[in-house]
Design brief:
By secondary structure, the protein is an alpha/beta fold. Helix content is about 40%, strand content about 15%.
């Protein structure tokens, strides 16, 4: 496995919807300062050239914070930018093919909504799973929320880490207590917030308490 469970605790997925005059780079740096432990760069509108340039810049930033950096869907950009890996959906390239392109040491995450998909991804060599959407989300409006019992079954069915994703906020995240996931992937819960650094810090504290039982004492906040 090319990533550790603790690295997946607070998994941030970028989105340009909430830049509000800021740069994505600046927002990502705030999130990293707040304690994000894993970062996925998600771009749907940029050209390949723009995406590659951005990926190279964000990779360097994540390296400064010692945070794994992966690309959403685009294996080619992941390879060319030197990212730590890629996250692929059920409709994207398969794990085995992605592994042939990226090599044995890169992180490959896979979306899984069923126990069958989860087991298959693990068998094919995925390093972690993203399961959801666990709540209704505007990011993927057509996604039917995943029953939390199914999330629990997925977590119990595999040995690789599982990250819950989809519609997770500071208000509803505790509803996932006891599901067995190793972390949560969030978008608007960090990047749509006025205080990005503070939002990341708070979420990380909640997740640490939920998953490891540790309470976080915030000094000066």
């Amino acid at each position: 496995m090319n990533c550790r469970k603790e690295q997946l605790l607070l998994y941030a997925v970028t989105d340009r919807s909430w830049l509000k005059g800021e740069t994505l780079y600046g927002q990502i740096e705030k999130a990293l300062k707040g304690g994000v432990t894993f970062l996925q760069l998600r771009e749907k509108e940029l050209s390949e050239e723009e995406f590659l340039k951005e990926a190279a810049e964000v990779k360097k930033l994540c390296q400064l914070y010692h945070v794994p950096f992966i690309i959403n869907d685009n294996v080619d950009i992941a390879l060319k930018s030197g990212a730590d890996g890629v996250h692929i959906g059920q409709g994207d390239m398969g794990v085995k093919e992605a592994r042939k392109i990226l090599g044995p040491d890169k992180i490959i995450g896979v979306s899984a909504r069923t126990v069958e998909q989860a087991k298959k991804a693990q068998e094919e060599g995925a390093d972690y799973l993203g399961s959801g959407a666990v709540f209704h989300t505007g990011t993927k409006g057509d996604a039917r929320p995943l029953d939390h019992e199914v999330l629990k079954e997925i977590c119990a069915s595999v040995e690789i880490p599982v990250v819950a994703i989809g519609g997770i906020t500071r208000e509803n995240i505790r509803q996932l207590q006891g599901c067995g996931m190793d972390g949560a992937a969030v978008v608007s819960a960090i990047f749509a917030q006025r205080d990005i650094e503070g939002a990341a810090m708070e979420l990380k504290g909640i997740l640490r308490e939920m998953i490891t039982g540790e309470e976080t004492v915030q000094i000066g906040k």
